[in-house]
Structure formats: C-alpha cells, structure tokens
Structures
1.
Amino acid sequence: MKPHQLIVPWKGDKRFTAIAKRAAALKKAGLDAEGILAAIRAEFGSPPELLGLREQPASAAIFGTVGEDVGAGGADIEPGALAQLQLALRLPIADCGALMPDAHVGYALPIGGVFRAHRAVAPAMVGVDIACRMMLTVFETPPDELMRRRDELFRTLKGVTTFGAGARREHAADHAVLDDPRWGATGQLRGLRQKAADQLGTSGSGNHFAELVVGERLQELLPGAPERFSGLLTHSGSRGVGYAVANHYMRVAAQETARVAKVPRYYEWLDLDSEAGQEYWTAMELCGAYASANHHVIHELFARRSKLPVAAQVENHHNFAWREGDLVTHRKGATPAEAGVLGLIPGSMGTSSYVVVGKGNPGSLMSSSHGAGRRGSRTWAKNTISMGDVRHDLAARDILVEGLSADESPLAYKDIERVMAIQESAGLLERVARMRPVAVLMAGEPGED
C-alpha cells in the first residue's frame, strides 16, 4: 500500500503535510506498511476519531403539509425540503430546527429552513447571498396619484438601480458603509472593498426585484403610514461581496470540519471560537450592513428624483445567522419574527405582498417565511409555464413588468394567501399592511435566490 493511502485516517489533521512527508521518507527507508503506521503513531499520535451523523435528527416544527404536487392543490412543502432539514438536524452541532410553508429544496439547508446549532456557524446554511433582504419605503402619495404618474415613476426607478449578475452602476454611488473599518479585518475583505464600491446600489439577478406598489394599512402598527399608500419595495442582497465571502468560508468550513467529523458536503461548519469562525462572523455582519446600504442607496435616490414624500420605512433580512449565548440560529430564506418586530413577506410579481409583525413563536424559533416560495425548480418552470399565459395574466392585472421570465412569473410561486394563512393560524405573525405591485423591474435571468 502506498504511503498516502496509509495515512488517510490523519486527513484533516493540521500536520497532514508533515505526516505525508514523514510517511514517504519511511517508505523510502524500507519500512513496510505496519512499520510506517507504527512510526507515524509514535511520532504524531493516533488519528482522531471522527464524529458522524446522529442516527435520528433533532426535533423540528413543520409549518404546512409535506407531499407531492406542491402548489397545485396538493401539499405545501416538497419532501426533498424536509429531507434536507432532517439531514442538517443529524449533525453533531444540531440543536433543533423549523420549516416554513414557503420551503423548497436548496442545497444543505432548504430555502425556508431554520437551523439552530451549538457554538457553530455553517456558511452554506446561511447561503451565498449573505443577508439578502427586503425593504419598503411608504410614501405619503395616495395610490391614485402614483398610478397617474406610473410610467414616469417606472422610468425613474429604472434609472436608480441596475440588474444583472456582476452589474455595475453607470455612475458610482456612495454610502458610509464603504468606510466601515471591518473592510480591513481580513485580506479577503480588503480585496473586496473595491467590488463593494462598484456594485453599491445595484440589485443583482434571480428573484431580486424593485417594484412600485399600492397598498392599504391593516393595523395601526406602521408609524407614519397613511391608511392607503404607495410605495417602493425591493429585494436584493450583498451582491458579489457576499458571494465571494460565502464561497471562501464554505471551503474553509469543509477543511475545518474534516478534522473533527465526517459529514456530507455543504453541511460543514466553523467553531465560533476558532479564528476562521470569528473571521466569518465579522464578514457576515459586514455583508449585512452592505446589503442594507444597497437598498438605502436605491430608495433614497428614488425618493429624491421622484420627489415623493417618505412616510415610513421597513426592512428585514434572511440568509443570516443570529447568536444567542451558545446557540446560533441560521435562517436561510426565513426571516426573524420576534414579538413586535415588523417584517416583509413578498408574494410574486402578480400577487400581494405583506408587512407583518412577529409574535415570537418559540416553535418556529421566532421565524417566518421570507416569501411565497417556489412550486418547483427553475427548470420545471421554464418547461411548464406558458409565457403567453403569463403576459395575459399580468396585462389583466394591469401590472407593468420589465425583465419577465417564466421562472419568476406568478405561476412559478406558491399561493401567498395560503402561506400567510398557515403562519397566522400557527401564531407566527399578524398582517399589518397589504400591497400589490403595479410596476416590476427584474433582471430576467437566472441567479441565486
């Protein structure tokens, strides 16, 4: 047997390179396999006993029914999404989890999945679009006035942000986030500072959007908002910065986890006390600040150019991890719903979206859905949905759309009213305001959700 095959049990040990060199030297010196292993054990110690998956998953609360034919009068959640959460809950670090009614298959943790871990953060369970978020600006302008100016305002919206993977603005934006000292925390972040500047105020691709909405207040919990209002609703994240951070620390997590456990790909983690864990946490929080800044640049520029008076603003994020003592809650495509906290849950480009208030339900780990959720994959949508039917439906609803694609059409998504009703009846949230889109801007191309 060759030396590199003999030392496989030590793979993941920080001294593995030295162990490999020593094994090769012992082989060259004429030792047989038994002699090489005895010498390596004497010099470096026995290989560590790796942790593995538990036989049974930790507990999880499921909000919605699980089964086939999602969104077609069948179940709420596809079985694959539940299987992904249950696999995560078999990890040695797992505490408990939850699955929201918008859940669908992703990688590692499903979209709409919530996973709580002991003193560890799993980069792939946060996701590649770190701190992706929603933001709503409510204007004092009544809906009738926005509709009268809709074409003009839609042109204005197109001028304040740019869509597309890797997109940059024609004219650079500025924000205090670019002066955040955390850009100097690691070599990677220093290298990403210019990308952050180049992409500030852009919106990306996939399911990211910017839309003009008209709505009505359902409760007196949105300070400053008139009973009937118009608004700007946006969905985007930390752009290429978050993508680079996520991919780097997913690789680091794979290396670190291999030293202590054998788990499936993308289910690796970083110890919070480790240098890499602390680096990732700093980078993740910076991505959160940067994602928020992207939205504020877009909203502030739109308000200034449109001269629409701002009445209120709400924002919340998903694809993030929150720490409480020794426990870390990952929400991938799920969003916080602590008691009294306002949030946003969008439907689709053809259906209602909602401002909500959380009720702090411990069963959901104080979480709610981040949207309606997909009925199936993007490939399924492109092969199944008729673009003619989509255009006819949007025209009937009097909704302007630029960047239309089958996989982002209303028919690609679950029924938002069903998703909301499940969460209301389970005591996760209450609706505060309802709004509908009247002009939607998207990239019209695939991307990360």
2.
Amino acid sequence: MRLEERITDLKEDIIKSTQEIIRIKSVKAEPDGDMPFGKGVNDCLNYALSLCESFGFKTKNVDNYAGYGEIGEGSEMIGILVHLDVVPEGDNWTYPPYEAKIHDDKIYGRGTIDDKGPAISAIYAMKAIKDSGIPLNKRIRIIFGTDEESGWEGINYYLEREEVPTMAFTPDADFPAIHGEKGILMFDLVKKINRECRVTKIKGGNRPNMVPDYAEAHVKDLDLNLVYEYGKNNNIKIDAGKEGDTTIVKFYGVSAHGSLPESGDNAISKLMVFLDTLDMNDEVGQFINFYKDKIGMEYYGQSIGCGFEDKESGKLIFNVGVIDFSDDEIKVSVNVRYPVTYEKDAIYDGMKSVTNTYDIDIVETDYMAPIYMPKDHALIERLMKVYREETGDNREPITIGGGTYARSMENAVAFGPLFPGQVELAHQKDEYIGIDHLMKMTVIYTKALAELLK
C-alpha cells in the first residue's frame, strides 16, 4: 500500500486523536507529587504514550519529565522531537480553547499547531511506516517533551538519562527545512522605586515569549474623560473605572508568538505610551518615559541599542512580554531573538549603553545560543527533497527567530508544520489547524521518515 493511501485510511483516527489530546489542558503548573509540571501536563504525556502503545510501539515514561515511543531496530536512531505542554490560553476565544471543536474543516484549540497537532501527526507517520512493511533498519523514536514553553527542564532531563538520536527533526516551526535559529535571550529590565508615585501599579502579560494581550495601570487623580478621549483619538480599546481617587486603566492587544511580535498588538507597550502622555516627573514617570522613548512600539530593538541584523537570519526581534510593578520595583520581562552571527555580549553591551543612563538593571533569566547548519548538510538536503517532491515548492531552506528543540542536540533541525503563507497562530487566541493541513503534513512526515530510513 502506498504511504499516502495509508494516511488517508487513518484520517478519522488522526482527527479523533488530535481532538482528544487538545482537550487535555497541559499548561505547566506547580509540581504535584511525582508530576513535576502538574497534572494536566502529566495526563497529556500519559495519553501520548498510551496511543503509541496501542500501535505496538516500544514506550518509556522518563519519570514524568519526558517519554518516548519507538519502532525499528539498529544502532542508528531517527528522532522526532515534540512537546506536549502549551502556553496559557488567554481570553476572547471564538471557540473554547480545550474543546477541539471543528468549524469549517478546522480544529480549534490551544496546541493544535504548537505542538500537539504535529505530535499526533508524527505518531501516525510512524504508524504508517510500521504498517507499510518498509524495512526498519534504523530506529525511529518520537520524544515527548513536557516543558518546552517555559524552560526545557523536561527535554534536558531526558538528554541526561536517555539515548540521543543520531539525527532528528522537530515539527514545531515552519516548512521548508530550517537551517538556522536565532539566539534567544530572556531578561528583566529592573528599576527600583524609592518614593510614592502617581502610578501605584502596572501589570500585564503572561510570559516573555508571548505578545501580551492585556495590561492595566492604577493611576491617582486621572480624569476618566481624558482616558476615553485618548482611546477614541487613537482607535484603541480601553476600559477604565474608579476606585476612590485611583483610576484603573485597562488596555487590550492581540497575543502572538514572541518571535513574531509584528503579528500581534502589544498591550503593555500601548499602555506605556499612553501613560507617558500624563507627563509625570516622579520615578515611575521617568521609567515610563524611558520605555516610551527606548522601546515604544518597536519590534527590532533599535532605540534601546540592539538593533542588529545579518544577511543569514535578518533583524533582531525584541518583545516585551510581561510587566509587573507594585511596591518598590518595576520589572519588565523581555524576549529577544538575535541574529545567528552575533554573540550575546554584543546585545547586552548595546542595551547597557542606554539603560545605564536611566539606572536600570538588566537581569538575565534564560539564554540559548543560535544554531546554524549549512544548506548542503545531508539532513537538510534529504528533508528538502521530500518537501519539494510533495509540494512542488522549490524555495530554499530558511532561518527563523523561533527556538525549537533542534537546539537541544547535534544534527537536529526544525521541519514544519506551517507552510509558507499560512497565518502563524501559535500563542494566539483561536489557534487552529486545518484538517487538510494536518493530513498533508502527516504525508510529508511519513515520507521524510521513509527517506531518512534509506
């Protein structure tokens, strides 16, 4: 039986499994007994392992930090690196984020594209290979990470204890094959506040790698009419209300992945630009002015001293994801994706040339070095061969700002699931995967595995 025909036969099962795994809310939570990332993530891992077991794969749960399903024999191992955790769902979904409802041949839900839908696709690609009778002279192992969105503790736990694949791809980015990923910095901009100020609280965002869709500020002696007039004049959705002499101002935006801030609308930045119009001269007002002048609505870090770019991977990306001010400290959490030919010290040095003037500290919270693989690398060439044959698209391999599990080991790259021109909905409300898209990428992953088995 041809591989495409086998995938077609499995269509209803692929859809059903995708819906079932989406219905498990697997946002990282506090440890719960032997579940390091909470019950939801643990339930999702057990679901994936059970599905693999039902297909006759060899499986292992790695202490609830990770797991894998495996087929085949031999010393060489082809890895498929997926993750089962998802970012928080946010607000204002058209369809419930954990019901996996189908509308217009699209499955809606958190994780449909990032990364549960691709994980199910890869499991069924392995099943199709297993059922096809193709000689399995290498092993194929799908590795389930559980903490990709907030620290990689799960995949790192796996790598410290289990066998590392000979080669691998991760379906957690874009097609065609990705031969470079920008470096990632996460840090806090921290300003100590020593005096009582007119703004008493600012809060917004969920995580540094998400464009925030909500932010609020508590401001003393602020006329509500001024707030609404600003919103009307600038075509911005704002809510406001009074609590005694304090006005609570609420700004709304559009969530998006932190590597693509231009796809969203940053509620924190819009709020800070508004607050700067109040001309406050106290310590918080000075920080707000710094934010407006040196960050503002920019995506590329040019005003804060790190607007770098290279021909290999393009411009640096600068995303403010979280702000938290109460009591005596303002903390702004930032996610930066920097070009593959730069070192991280150049990024920090550029920013410090600006922030030192304002007595603002930069505190690093996470770092991933960039990765880069030549376009003529054997793994890239073989994945590109399958992609071109299946799509008729002869474009070249690409580089991205996103950070995938390809960084976690040697000889690994990202490959799909988004096709060129498709809207990036990871980390956004109304995330979905089209059923035709799900089936097409399953065919590509099946044929990619067949190619890598040769």
3.
Amino acid sequence: MPIKIAVITDDVVTERMAGPAIRAWHLATELASHGHEVTLFSTRFADRQTADFTVTYSAVATGALEPLREVVAWADCVITQGYTTFFEPWILTQDKYLVVDLYDPIHIELLEAESAASPAEQEIALARAYDALDLQVEFGDFFICASQRQRDLWLGYLSAKRRLNFVNYRVDPELNQLIDLVPFGISNDDPPVTDGHVLRGVVPGIDADAEILLWAGGIYNWFDPVTLIRAVAELRRTRPSVHLVFMGVRHPLADAVADGSLRDAYRVAEELEVLGSHVHFLDGWVPYEQRHQYLLEADLGVSTHFVNAETAYSFRTRMLDYLWCGLPIVCTEGDEFAAIVAADELGEAVPARNVEALRAAIERLLADDNLRAQTRVRVRATAERYRWSSVVQPVVQYCAAPYKSPDGHPTARTIGPVFYAKRDATRRVRHVRAYVEINGWRRLIRRGTERTLAAGLRLVRRPRSSTAANDDPS
C-alpha cells in the first residue's frame, strides 16, 4: 500500500550535490518508483526538480520552520540523516514511522574534520554529534547503513542505548528488522556516451595524448592527496604524459568543510613543480549530471587516504562513480572499498603513505592496455551489485509494510520543556568554556560587563510608553 514519505537532508539539493544529497535524491527516486508519494526536503536550499517526486526546502537555521512542519505533518514516514533531529527534536514527538540513515558516522568523521580546532571547540562539535546520534538511536524505528563494518559499529551503539533487547531479538534474531545494509549506489542507467572533451585539450596543460588519473570528489582532512601528488611527480619522469586531475575540489557547502589537506595539496604540488603541468585542480563543484564526462575521459580512478578510524568506517561515494563508468581503481588500503577492489580485482589497493607502491601500481595499470581492459570488465561486473534499484531494497521493503519498533523505544527521552531547558543550558556551558579557552576569563568578564551596560543604557533610553513616544513634538 503506497504511503507518504518525507526524505529529509541537511545538504543542498542542487545541480551540484555532495554525498548526503545524492543519497537522499536516489532514495526518493526509488521509493517514488514503487508508487509512494515522496517529498525530498532540504533544510538548507533546493532548486533541483523532477517529475518523479516533490522537492522543497526552507532555511531552517534562520527559523523558517513552517515548511518543514508541514512536510512532517503530511508524511506517514520520515527518513532522516545527519543533524536534522538534533536541531529539530520536535520531529521525534510526531507519530511517524522513523527511518534513520546512518551511512555517515558523523562522530568519527569529526575526529579528522575538527583536528585543527581548539580542545573546547572539538568538545562542542563532538558533543553535538553524540547528542544527534543519541536522539536518532533512541527514537528510530528502522536504521540503515552502508557496509557490514558500519553495521557492526552501529549495533554496538544500539546496544549501548539498549535497543538490542529481548523484544527486538525475538522478532528477528538477525536484527535486520532493526538495522540493515543500504550501500551507496550507482545510477540504474549506464553513463551517457559523449563525443566531446572536458579535460584533454580543454584544461591548460592536458594534451590529447594525456594519461589521466581522476580524483572524483572533494579533498577533506581525512584524505591524503600529498602522497598521490608525490607519486605522480616521480612517475612523470618515466611517463611524462601522466596527469592527475582533482575534479571539483570545493564542496557545495565549502564553509562547513575542513580544508587543511586541500591547502597541503596545493603547496606540495607547487613545491614539486607539477602544479598546472601534471597536477590540476578544477575549482568549484562539477554538476551532478555532468560528472560522467570527466569520468569517461579518465584512464584510472584514484583515491588515497590516511589509515585511521574514519577510514575504517567510511564508504567512499566517489568509488561508486568509478564503478559506474568502468574505471580501474588505484586506492589506499584500510577502508571497506579497498577490500572490494582487492577481492574483485578492480585495480590495486596499496599501503597508506607509500609513494613508491602507489607510483608502481599506477604505472602497472597505465603501461598494460590488456590489464586495464580486463580490469574494466571486472569493474563493470561489480557495478551491477550497486545499482540503486538493488541496494535500496531494504528501505523499499520497510516502506511497503512500515512498522514501529517492537521494543517501543525503551530509552527514548521525553521531548518537552525540561529536555529543551537542559539541552540549552548544556550548550551555553560548552560555548562559554570554548570562549574562555580561546579568549581568556578577562575578555569574557569585559564582554559581559559591556553587554550589561549596553542593555542598561537601552532600558534607560527606552520611552516609558507608546503614548509618551507618540507625544514627542519632533
């Protein structure tokens, strides 16, 4: 039986979309194709439209809540991700089926994203992430994540919040009705064939005979572009036609993304004298519907990262685009996708921070046309497992017969005046601590005194009544 579904994302839904919005878009697309009435709602901005479902938005951070309230009230089922219910916990008080998308472990991602912040700022960011996750885990009816490794992580979190209990276990001993796998997917259609070029003969320095390594996504602090740039700087000595292209280095929400690795990448490329000659940064963000033009023109897809907790639980969405366009892959070991590359022989996975191993892996694939062609065949075979129509099936099945969690959310808090008062007080204490750490107690006291005096002056100068104000002869 068709139901009304609200898919809510904190990302912008435009022609230039990043991972969270892309995932929300395709969830909405697949659910609409099964006859459900779907609205995709962005809490920031949206101008991308489709005939398949409704797309709308409001700038929730500015207080424009009414459109979001209307969509939630309309829906039978809400699918949410990220921080939405942290900032708008009233959503959890509505009598809706709640699907929580945990494909992005935000608390682990922050360990890298906020690595350059002060300790107090780090505490604020991490506390916010845990607060967001706690609410989702307490109130969710059904959870999805991107990999088995992530599922193990989230089963631990669910266990800590007492969601692994006898009631849920009796209903389903495998706990798939509580949390199931929905990997990031690829388009159900093959990429459109294009005759033109967007790189060779177009980007300065990239000639018609260039061998192109494509980095298809942003450069964030958990990535290691420097080792890759060093490998290319070495490789150019034996293969002068090699070119590394960073496609769209600036995230659509650039102010929200840490960019220390991006600055390092520019600096090292310049120091090694390969910037603009063998290493190219395409500023901005490639429109979602045009990304295939860059992917189809490349010879290899590349992705390098550091080995840490963020790596262990990530699921690199750019790797799915490599599958979609049949690109052999060279990547760093340590994450979920590197294991797939190795097991399915989709290219090569090399040790982290190993310039020589990375250089050699790239050269082996570039030097052997037959190896590259055979690898492309295996890449396309693996890609079939990740079509959106396939990977989204657990959500399709849930929405076909939605249910409230059998355990009745045993640890869910009451969302009311006491909750909001405690939350707001805790936030103020954290922010005061951060301010003092950065600026010191004296500045805090001085600022507080200045604000108190300013408020007192405004009170003194305020007209005693509206009548008195209206009687002013001027």
